[in-house]
Design goal:
The protein has about 400 residues and is an alpha/beta fold. The protein is about 45% helix and about 15% strand.
Length: about 400
Amino acid sequence: MKETNFEFPILSINKNEYENVKRWISEYRAKISEKKLYIFGAGIRGNMFLKLLEEEHISVTGFGDNSTEKQGGYIKNYPILSMDDICSDLDNNVILVSTENYYEIDRMLAEKGCQKNLHYFIIENDIYPSFYKEFFRGGEIKYIVFGDCFFTELDIDDLSGLTMGEMIKAAGGVDGTKVLSIHGMCIPSFYYLMREQLNLGIRPKAVGFIVNIPFCNGIQTKLPQSQHSVLLKQIEEGLPQYSETFSNYVRLAEERSKNINAKSFSTNRVRNNDNIERILTKTRYMYELNEENENIEFLKRLVQLLLENNIKPVPFIPALNYFSGIEWFGEAFNVKYNRICQQIKEKLQKMGVSILDMSLLLDKSYFTGDRMTKFPSEEGKRKEIDLLRNALEV
């Protein structure tokens, strides 16, 4: 067995995804209880499915994945097998497909003689349709807000209440505020999507967009969850007129999604979640900023695009549960993290733009748990949203 662990700590979950998984469990619990359940797709979404299934006391036998890099590895103690291995015993095995691009897996399983809702199940992902609908929504749009999971997800330890996306819409006016947010999306995508918003005739007064420090380390733009090539392709096909610039970006995203090194987000031999979190913290918040980083370059391009169109840019850094970083790494954490933030601020200041830095906005009481990437409590979310809403005012 390859000594590669593809476990990924699940700290939050998309609200719609959570509700869909809960409905599926309620409907099919009895049908899968006498079978060996395999999750097909050993990625972040598969890790998320595992966590929710375990919390519902549903037994999981293992994972499946088409990546030969992952086959023979594991998530926690669950082995990762090939599709052929799992489909070799359809009388006893049942498959839950977790891949975001489940259309291709659906076709492959059907070709192997598997019957949907008997041998395998798909929890359809409505994240892309929701994003697509919001992207093309017209009307009097006063504000556009770009983000990642910051606006769409709930903390895994607090799955009640509103997402920050729902909060900012309520604060800015549901009809007049457009939230284009999806997990893992980075600043280059914000730039290209904003160009097409302008081409659609949508010219807001202000545009807010997250500057997530982990995204500026040069790794995030090459991770599988950052590409969303299927979504970008759908948007390309929905545009009323051909955009060569956007089409070139879609081709790039498609190419990157085909050339992912799965080990780039594995945790190798690390089994302890605390150790994983330490590694992620150091990688995401304590690196040396490269000025030629793709996200930094497109940060400047996005700001310039907005300024040229007389739109107020509102870049912001979200609140951070920084106490864990200090506990693990001491003053070194503060020094390296603050240096990154300062370098980004200086780049924007040269363009005449200030950044809303909420890094130290919330004390420890606003977070549940010690993870760096934990979402704040309901009260903490509202403090962030209030500041962002005020910053968007022209």
